What does this fold into?
Amino acid sequence: MTINGNRISFKMTPFRLVLIAFSIVFVGIVFYRLVTGLKLTNLNDAWPWGLWIFIDVKLGVALAAGGFTTAGIYYVLGVKKVKSVVKPAILTAWLGYCLVGFGLLMDLGRWYGWWHPIFSWGEHSVMFELYMCVLLYTIVLTCEFAPVLFKGIGMIKISTFFTSLTAPLVIGGIALSTMHQSSLGSMYVLTLGKLNELWWTMLLPVLYYTSAVAVGPAMVTCETALAGRFFRHEWDHEAMTFLAKWSGYIMTFYAVLRFTDLAVRNQLGALFAFDTVSLMCLLELGIGTILPLLFFWSYKLGGKVMTQKMIVRNAVLLVLGVALNRGNVVFTGMAKAAGEYYFPSIGELFLSIGLISVGILIYLFIVENFDVFPAHRHHAGETANQARPEGASCVQA
Amino acid sequence: MSKGVLVDITKCFGCGACTVACKLWNEKKYDEVNKPTLGEKAQLVDINWTVVSKHDVTDTAGQSAWRFAKKQCLHCVDPACASSCLVGALRKTPEGPVIYHPDLCVGCRYCMVACPFNIPKYEWEKSFPKISKCQMCSSRVAAGEQPACIAVCPNQVMQFGDRDALVKEAHQRIAAEPRRYVNHVFGETEVGGTAWIYLSDQPFDRLGYKTSVPKESLPAFTWQILSKLPLILVAWTAMLSGIYFFNKRRHALADGKQDSTGGPQA
It folds into this structure.
């Protein structure tokens, strides 16, 4: 079988062997979990949600926001200079949502009933809205990426059909993403009195959505930087600068909103109480909001050109910041109400690691065999990208 | 009329008959060693739908004394758990009980996160666990009978009746004997009101009741957001479509040819 006229290839490297090892462990844990329930977790009545909800769902969805944001920037806003990142971003978002779906399935105690919400609507539940949007958006992403896959296996007509759906898919995808990215925050509105007030606010949906819109392109930047190193792609400086600015402006809006909200709700005292909760919040705000904004505005106001190093550093900070924020809501902010500590079990840890490993392996397989990166054409017969020496494409990844 | 229960903690001497009746009626297992239903360590867990916890306190005369606090689901008037459930597996019945439908439940445990009193528990040991909490003997209540725990109480600690009437009754009892009770009917306004309400001579937080909960109904907060979503969805989609067509036309004019906003491989 061939893809794009080339034989299917998957080079083995030590890194990939490690991922495969994790994936094998993962399959074992999945079967054990599906049969025996949640016994392998450290979850209990005080901590009904743990690592899986945090990494596989909350963080996974936020970091996969690169799909709808870059698609929106390219197709809706018509910013053509980000073209090189759109396809990889849609691919990672698609894989991301598939992993989120699988992670959520693993977390469901009665997983065989995963389809119940489709027929039995809990329309007053944020979780219902989240479920529906994630389900539909995963389908949308599948259709958005389908042209690349079908073109690869030679089904040009089907590929063209999906391509003709692009505009409604992208717009629908943004609408669905707006709903469920904010819902991840709205979910915790119901925990008034349990979630620490440094995080509980009626603005939770707006804050979650804004930070997702900022972190999506930042995650795309990180992925592009990594993929560029592994596959020796040229750094598309114009596209990356645009994404960095985008994140910078959105994050500025987020920061104003977040600090105004804390001030209006008289939480600034609690923010500087320097107890565990306050320190975690300060860490989150320092790493994810203040530092990247400081870098961004000093470059902006100083009239300096953003360097690759600065762009990647800012993107990493934003990703860390959002991870800290989501973690603080799930763990730090809820710790007092829980009354005891939680630390994930080995099983929980390796299921999450394994899930991500599987995702990376599928990603590597797809980018190696399909036309995802503009400079990565096997069938062109010529190397479009001078920076990529012939045959050295996948030596590291 | 929605039913409720008025619990007078000053009358309870901690015999635990109610916990036994609960286990018998609901066919729950006993595990007094690891999951006691009575005493200082009594805790609501999957097999304990009601417990009577023992607390060392100082009474109004300044003497040290014991108090016994009956705990179970409070059956909120506007339950957060029911609003949180994505399949409607938890529902408030018109008679008052908040009941669980395991056939619908997918086991996401959002209800456990949402409950302001941390009442729903989980069968963590089972392969396909269910949520576990007091059902207020809903079949008995629907038939006009009182819940099993109330029926067996030897000292009439609990009174079953219409919730609104019981709230009035509670205030009358406080007014009649202001030195016997603290001036607080627990459950009257907590999270917008609960079906089970309590009288006590001790502040309720000393008896392990969670008094720091909001006074407003919690689902109302979520509904403020959810009810706006359809409008936002329509307006946002229309706006995005507008921007899309505007830019498409702009690019087409600029390029002087067909637009280039094709699919991902365009």
Observations:
- Chain B has a mean pLDDT of 93.
- The first strand of chain B starts at residue 3 and ends at 8.
- The domain at 3-219 of chain B is CATH 3.30.70.20 (Alpha-Beta Plaits).
